[in-house]
Structure formats: C-alpha cells, structure tokens
Amino acid sequence: MKIIDCHAHMAVPHQLPAYKASILSHRGAHGRKAPPVSNEALEQAFNRVEMAPMGHLACLDQAGVDIQLLSPRPFQLMHSEEPKKLVHWYVEYANDIIAQECALYPKRFYGVAGLPQTGDSPITEALPELERCVKEFGFRGCLINPDPFENNGRMAPPMGDRYWYPLYEKLCELDVVGHIHSASSRAPEREPYSLHFINEETTAVYGLCKSTVLEDFPELKILVSHGGGAIPYQLGRFDATTVPRNGMSTSGVRFRDRLQKLYFDTVLYSRDAIELLVKVVGPSQCLYGAEMPGVGSSIDPETGETFDTIIPHINGLSFISDDERKAILGGNAARLFNIEA
Q1: Do 143 and 113 touch, CB atoms closer than 8 A?
Q2: In whole angstroms, how far apart are CA 16 and each of 116, 132, 196?
Q3: Sheet arrangement for strand 286-287
Q4: Are 194 and 237 in contact, with CB atoms under 8 Å apart?
Q5: Candidate list 129, 275, 291, 324, residue with the active-site label
Q6: pTM surpassing 0.85?
Q7: What is the pLDDT of residues 150-161, one digit of tens each?
C-alpha cells in the first residue's frame, strides 16, 4: 500500500503571486491576462527551499510519501476580495497550475480544486469551476471554506444550512471529496488565519453533526482538516446535548454517530493529538495528512525532526492493527479519493 498525504498544497511558481498582485492593483481594469507557466518554472518551484529545510519533492522522498493531494494555498484564496471576479480569476489560475503540476508528475500528485467562493453569493456560482476541474483535469475533490467572508464581521450560514445543499449534491454527483479548510482572516490580531482554520473547522463539524445533512446525502464524502479542530477533544460536551435528559426527547441521532460519517486528516503535528483523534473517531475515519512542506516543516528542537514528520507517530500507535495502520497511511485515502494505490 502506498503512503498518501491527503492534505498538501501546491508548489507556487513565481508567476502566481505576481498575478495576484497585478489583478489586485488594477482591480480587474486590465482584464485577467494570466501568464503562461513553463514546466521548468514548476520544477523550480517543487525544488525551491522555502518553508522546509529542503524542497517539496525532497520532503516527500525523505518522509517516504508516494502520493499527495494538491490544492491551492488556502490563505491566499482571498474569498472576501472585491470585485468578485478577481476571486474567480485567481482561483481558476491556481487550479490550472495544479493541473499542470499533476500532469508533470503523474501518479505522484492528484488535484483538489479551490472553489471561487464569495461571501454573499450563492454557492451555485462556484460549482462550474468544480465541474471543470473534475471533468477536464480529473481532480479528486475541492476545498470548502466554511467562512468565505474571511472573518470580516459577517457570518456565513452553518454547514447544515440549505445554502450548501447544491454543493453537496454536486459532490455526490461527481463522486469527489469535499475537503473542509478555512482560508484567510481579516482579524489577524485576535484570530490569525492558522487559528481561524481550527475555529472554522470546529464550527463546520458542529453544523454538519447537528443537522440532517449526513442523512440527506448518505454518499457525501467530507474530509475535515487539522483533525477536526476542537471537536474530538470536546466530543463529550457536544454528544451530551443529543441524549434524552429529564424526560425530554431529542432528535434520536447522537452527535458521535454522525461524527463517524466524516473523515479527518492527521495534520496535528504531535503524537498525543494524533492518538486522541484515532481513539475518538476510529482508524477507519482517519487519513494521513502532513501538509508537507508547510507550517509544520520547522525543526522541533526536542526531536531534531520537522514537526510534520508524523508517519512515526502513526506507526507508533500500539492500539491499532497493522491493517488499520495501513488504512490510515494510504488505504482510506485511496478509497475516498478513488486512487489506485
């Protein structure tokens, strides 16, 4: 069984940030004019030493990762930017580059699309890009931002709301994965984007598990970033609200039972956190993810390894079987994303 990192982000050629700066500066007045990116530029991006002690490809080789799912870097997606066409232009260009990266390294990388979500637009406006990426490029899923307002003071509907149903219908129709991953934050002093990720993913799981979405869409495949935020740690609190109390009835569906219909990555960067996640949701619902290279690629002074060196943490889980270990490291991702591994 190959090792599959279900949560990784694209290698960024210099043309992408330059393009973003350009369209932001003229606000679309000069048109989209996305520059071509050569394969040589992509190779340079994959080998550039940026967030880790070595380049992207070298990180994978050293860790023993065979396959990665690549998506745009979420904090760059600018979902709350105006005019909204800029969001569409940037996301589409990033997806085009990911498709080119996957074609350059076939069987090593598979695409996960960014969605051009904007806060006060119907989710249906983002669906043509999802369909394009799946049908034209063979992408295996998409990122879902629970807060396309990007923490600007306005609130998006909870993920159990009917607002999201067209997206869930499309994910089921295409048989691809919805990967919940928040994006930027416009309140960095109080809630920088890394913290906003965790808080929004917690809120997203709560919204799904306190609604009927998972019954309404039994084939829906949802993967939650960063171990589900705070939910596994606080499961007892939320589950307690779904059992009868003092003769009062509930919906009859336990929070913890709905939680078992979701999938979670292991982008947690500590053995204790990964152990807790696997114990709470079970090995069948966990997918190895390291987001390598990324936030966790700095050196842990206590181990001398990068924080995202987490395959040893999974190998060290004494309470799971060898088959369950293989499932976490690759089997679950292969099944969920329809990858031959």
Answers
A1: yes
A2: 16, 20, 24
A3: 141-144, 177-180, 222-224, 263-265, 286-287
A4: no
A5: 291
A6: yes
A7: 999 999 999 999
